[in-house]
Amino acid sequence: LSLQEGAAVTQRYTDAERRYLAIKEEVKGRAAALDEAVSQSAQFHDKMDPLLETLEGAVQRLRQPPPVAAEVEKIREQLAEHRAQGLELDKLLPSFSALCARGEELISRAAHDDPAAQGEAQKTLKPNISEDLCGNIRQRAEDRESKLNDVLDLAGKFWSDVAALLSTLRDSQDIMKELEDPGVDPSLIKQQIEAAEAIKAETDGLREELEFVRTLGADLIFACGETEKPEVKKTIDEVRRRTRNEDEVVHVTISPRSNKYKILKS
After folding, report:
1. Which fold has domain 3-150?
2. What gap in Å lies between CA 49 and CA 80, rounded to an integer?
3. pLDDT tens across 106-151, in order?
4. What is the Cβ-side half-sphere exposure of residue 43, based on CA atoms within 13 angstroms?
5. pLDDT tens-digit readout, 10-65
6. Rg for the chain, CA atoms, rounded
């Protein structure tokens, strides 16, 4: 080779070596970045996966909540349990939001000039859950609490009215039981007839209240579901039975006394 040709070969060799070293450094840099990305991805999923599992479980419970009870105390227990679960979720949601932000940060740090790397980063790091999960959980939790409160009010009215009806019927029965045999005293017979007729008028007035209670019971069954229907229906049937019994007792009390009173006055 001439000196000129030797210099050209040497230059090509030098250029090739420089490119090789540059490529080698770039590969080393990418390998280090990839190792770091893998490490950060693993750390991310170690935190995100169990949190997602918990949140998705919460969403499932809110989508298919247990039936609402019909008894006031049980509804209060359900409400307290729901609120306790809500407090736990309130503690988790900020962590979830922070991890979502961390995931987006990791995605943004992927090489923008490398579509494959960017796509892989999005697939690996982006949370496998819709962005509105937090809002979805909060909305469903609010809807559930609202329903529990509504049913609690309805159940309170139903059981309160049932208790008032039964109390009135018991008082009436106690009065009827206390009526002694009036013998042949027309004035005493008349007093007892008037007392029994007053009770009859009160019992007749209870029929409208009984119908209102029946309507409340139907609304309560609709709100709670079929699981609570037997207990509510049993209660309404019991009130009806006692009302019929009261009618019979009043009739048995008034009829013979009225006949005796007419005979004595004739």
Report:
1. Methane Monooxygenase Hydroxylase; Chain G, domain 1 (1.20.58)
2. 28
3. 777 665 545 555 555 555 445 445 456 777 888 889 999 999 999 9
4. 10
5. 888 888 888 988 888 888 887 787 777 778 778 888 888 888 888 888 888 888 88
6. 41
In terms of pTM, does the model score above 0.70? no
Kind plus residue range of the DSSP H or E element containing 56: helix 3-63
The Cα 38–Cα 44 span in angstroms is: 10
Distance CA 114, CA 120 (A): 10
Q: How remote is the C-alpha of 63 from its chain's centroid?
A: 9
Question: Can you read off the two tokens belonging to residue 35?
Answer: 């190792």
Angle at Cα 34 formed by Cα 33 and Cα 38, nearest 5°? Answer: 120
Please give the class, per CATH, of domain 152-265. mainly alpha
Residues 6 or more apart whose CB falls under 8 angstroms from that of 17 comprise none
Q: Are 228 and 70 a contacting pair, CB within 8 Å?
A: yes
d(CA 153, CA 74): 13
Compute the distance between CA of residue 131 and CA of residue 220 in angstroms, rounded to an integer: 37
Continuous segment of H or E residues that includes residue 129: none
Q: Which residues of 29-50 are buried (b: 16+ CB within 10 A; e: fewer)?
A: eeeeeeeebeeebeebbeebee
Which residue is associated with the tokens 């049937």? 237
Longest CA pairwise span in the chain (Å): 161
